[in-house]
Amino acid sequence: MPRTNCFYVSLLILVWAKTGEGALRVQLPDYDKNSWRNVLKRVAPDWVLEEFQDVRVSSAAENGFQLPKSGNARIEISKHGKKSVMANTPTDALNAINTYLRTQCLSQVSWSNSSFSSGCRKHSNDILNFESKQIRYFGNMCTFSYSFAWWEWPQWEKFIDWIALNGFNTVLMPLGQEAIWRDVFMGLGVERDELDSYFTSQAYLAWHRMGNLKAYGGGLSDAQMLNDFNLAKRIINRLLELGIVPILPTFAGFVPDQLEKDFRLFPTSKFNRLPCWNNFTSETSCLLSVSPFDPLFQKIGSTFLRHQKKMLGGDITNLYSADPFNEILPSDSSKFDASFMKQTAQSIMNSCRKVDKNCIWVLQSWSFTYDQWPNWAIKSFLSAVPIGNLLILDLYSEVVPAWQMTSSFHGHNFVWCLLHNFGGSRELRGNLQKVDKGYQLALMKAGSNLVGAGLSMEAIDQNYVVYQFMIDRMWSQEPIPLNNWLKSYSESRYSADFKVSHKFWTILAGSFYSQPEKWGNPRFSVFLYHRPAFAKKIEYWFPVEETFNHLQSLMPSLMHVLGDHPLFKEDLNDVMRAVIQFEIGNEAALSLTEAFLMEDKQQIGASCENLMDMFQKLESYSNRDFKEWIEDSKSIAPTSEERQVFPVTASDILTVWGPTGQNLDYAHREWAGLLSGYYGRRWQYFCDWILEHDVFNHTDFSISVFRDVERPFAISNI
Ligand SMILES: *[C@@H]1O[C@H](CO)[C@@H](O)[C@H](O)[C@H]1NC(C)=O
Ligand SMILES: *[C@@H]1O[C@H](CO)[C@@H](O)[C@H](O)[C@H]1NC(C)=O
Ligand SMILES: *[C@@H]1O[C@H](CO)[C@@H](O)[C@H](O)[C@H]1NC(C)=O
């Protein structure tokens, strides 16, 4: 008998060691157990707090100051309908409450606005369980430029409430790091004005932080760095209060040129010159990076983390992000040099562990797929870090599931992320069923190192339905029956259970939101927002006329019951723009092409008039005004110079996006002010051009339209 016992004991230890070793150990902040109440007070009418009086959240100590292995909450409903909520953390509790509000009380908190009914359905004698994987992640580096660049506390406060209400427990937080880097680099001997040719201006910080851009827009003032830092600190404190773990930056290798140029500083250190990003020149790209083999790497990395810790007031997280090769190949001459890759990963990890022995490095999978790393290179890079110390964001899982191409990241913990949107373009599109299946496949096949799911859109304020769906998916172990879900979505969104709004959403889900796998991204096919050209047309994957007719037939009753509802108006605007673009835009563009071929100047003129009318119409169905974006950029600027620079960069990033149009129209927006003022004006210029030129020379036209319309528009917004 004793022998058997002994055998049992050692087996148990083995099993424990195996699961314990690679597990993701995320430090949980000492949050405020009652912080959920403040969120509800801010966002919801009084009846919501009356419904949810009994909410019991475990303390961080009860959770062992570790992010629980799964997100858990329960709502118990007594036979008299009284509700009690039990949850691991405040954000778990809020997610349960919010889900209840959405499914039982016809209420929704969305990005642009909320919709609340006046109470919940009758409901008694029930227990609702909420369970998810360990991680619910929010963030993409780019969102901090494309959506958050000009945000101040009021916008952030609302957004964090939304984050908490949807149960996210890890949030990317790169904001404010420049103030810390400034001190670190100056401490190493870099002069203040050299930093102006290193940091970019506010609008472009996302790409600065990923090693893609420097100096573009002329750096940041000390005052702006401090504003960003103070804002970040406030955001972080609120996240911590709610039990949400911020992911802070760590050193990826990028440094100002002066470290190499000024020979007195580090005469024996080795540096690499990174490739330039997307055709930006060496003045604004091609950053300098410390060689991972050089001890200076460890020194800078640990100095930064110590200073960050000091400025933020202690050990608030053990999650740190670094992306050394975002859309740039490793610079070494042989491109993928195994020892270089390995050393890079090791140096990032080691410099972090020097300061925080529990450091977990959060890495975006983007480089692997974007630059098509060979499998051996991925393997050699990833194998440099022990399992458990790396958390990979599989950033675009719904389309390019990197986990499938890398044997589940060779055992490293990873998060299945929905990216869905690039640059913040507004086209209605998506595929709810595909999202559902993609995550289900990962749940079934990826193994226990799939530790959660996330949202990683480049910009918010578009296609809300797709993200709300994914959020619900995070809390479900099984596929979600779509029809029921849509019914509930339409009810919560408009706070009413009209059949016609359910029908509206069923049609949208069966058309715009059923984009087939192999269909290209329509942000390119909606040609009206790109540089004009001939023979363009918008194509959809569904029977367009039938769908539009169907939608049209619902309009009278929809308008009757929901005409004044703010979220319905917003959805209707989105649909109307899609209809107008397709119906008028396609026809006018076709007619323009024909007219040019037939040299029919009159028809050219008529087609153009139609196009201009169309842009005017689109303006009236816009959900946002470009002017606000520009005004927001001005209003945060702390110096007179930045009051000039911010609006220009705000405009640049949505239009030409680069001094010579490097990312032209990548972040196009269907906003009032841009529709006629920029896209319309550009088509007018095209029309005038073809009236004056018998032969269309593409090169000539591109040069001229950039010089006469695109660039002047971008720099005129002061
Ligand atoms: C949000 O909704 C309320 C009414 O529900 C409305 O008064 C307000 O104007 C809306 N805000 C926006 C920005 O649409
Ligand atoms: C850079 O510019 C060239 C020529 O204009 C173009 O063919 C290429 O696609 C551009 N590369 C990137 C990454 O934008
Ligand atoms: C188009 O214009 C460019 C620049 O002016 C010129 O170099 C090129 O030869 C022209 N192409 C044709 C087909 O005329």
Automatic annotation (TrEMBL):
Record InterPro entries? GH (IPR017853), NAGLU (IPR007781), NAGLU_C (IPR024732), NAGLU_tim-barrel (IPR024733)
Which SUPFAM superfamilies does the record cross-reference, listed alphabetically?
A: (Trans)glycosidases (SSF51445)
Which parts of the sequence belong to the Alpha-N-acetylglucosaminidase C-terminal domain? 485-713
Pfam families on file: NAGLU, NAGLU_C
Keyword match Transmembrane: no
Q: Where is the signal peptide?
A: 1-22
Query: Which keywords has UniProt assigned to this entry?
Result: Signal
Alpha-N-acetylglucosaminidase tim-barrel domain span: 136-477
PANTHER family the record matches: ALPHA-N-ACETYLGLUCOSAMINIDASE
Mind telling me what this protein is named? Alpha-N-acetylglucosaminidase
Species source reads Caenorhabditis remanei
